[in-house]
Amino acid sequence: MPSPCDPAFAPIGDVSTALLLIDSRLKTVHSGRTEFDPQQKELIEHYTASMGPDEVQDVLDGACTLIFMYMKWLRLAHEDAGKDVIEYVVPTLVATMRQMPRSIPTETIPTMVGLVVAAGTGLSPSLWRAQYGDWTKAEMTPLEATVFLVAEHINRITDDQDFATRLITDALSRAEAGEGLDDEDEDDDSVGA
Q1: Does the pLDDT value for residue 116 go beyond 90?
Q2: pLDDT (0 to 100) of residue 14
Q3: What are phi and psi of 35, to 5 degrees?
Q4: Which pLDDT value is given to residue 131?
Q5: What is the predicted pLDDT for the residue at 36?
Q6: Under 8 Å CB-to-CB from 120, ≥6 apart: which residues?
Q7: Residue 143's pLDDT is what?
Q8: Handedness of CA 79, 68, 168, 105 (dihedral sign)
Q9: Pure H helices in 99-139
């Protein structure tokens, strides 16, 4: 019997917008700046302010799809090395989150870790989170930070500051072009998280 958190039942969401937000954060960090470019920040704030509830939910689902795709990539990479993704990714993630109390309140860490563990075990982070009710405002920044931290973890592993973004844009391009995908990528592109 399939799990109610099976990714096949999850919405994909607005992956492009979620990726745009995360990529902007990654570029800001790697540029050495401590703040967003003011014009970029204004553009993003204007765009997000214009979203309705359905569009916001789509971006949240898109962020969960990013977590799912990133954790699937990490799981496969760790399995190739004979390691468990949960054992190697989650402790680092938790330690980093605990160092970010202004962005990630302590009470949101278990939920964010739950999203990552769900994805790392092949479950939909979006459907896993849905079991506990609607998203709260307090979870918005921690969710963004979680996607950022998992993407940055991939970038560090690959020693490539753009690898995590390319991983998703390449998958989206292949899906839009309807090109043949290998089985592993097909799962990532055809299901939500």
Answers
A1: yes
A2: 94
A3: -130, 160
A4: 93
A5: 61
A6: 71, 74, 75, 85, 86, 89, 90
A7: 95
A8: negative
A9: 109-120, 125-130
Q: Residues 132-135: contacts with CB within 8 Å, 24+ apart?
A: 135/60
State phi, psi for 90 to the nearest 5 degrees.
-65, -45
> 70 lies in which domain range?
7-190
Position 67 in a domain: yes
CA angle (41 as vertex; 36, 45 as ends), nearest 5: 145
Question: How far is it, in rounded angstroms, from Cα 75 to Cα 168?
Answer: 16
Of 18, 31, 68, give the one whose Cα is nearest residue 161.
Answer: 31
For 51-66, write each residue's pLDDT tens digit. Answer: 888 888 999 999 999 9
Q: How many domains does the chain have?
A: 1
How much is the average pLDDT of 14-39?
81
Structure tokens, 42: 């204004």
Phi, psi of 67 (to 5 degrees): -60, -45
Say if 41 falls within a structural domain: yes
C-alpha to C-alpha distances, 149 to 35, 162, 184, nearest whole angstrom? 17, 13, 23
Whether 133 maps to a domain, the answer reads yes
Q: How many residues does the chain have?
A: 193
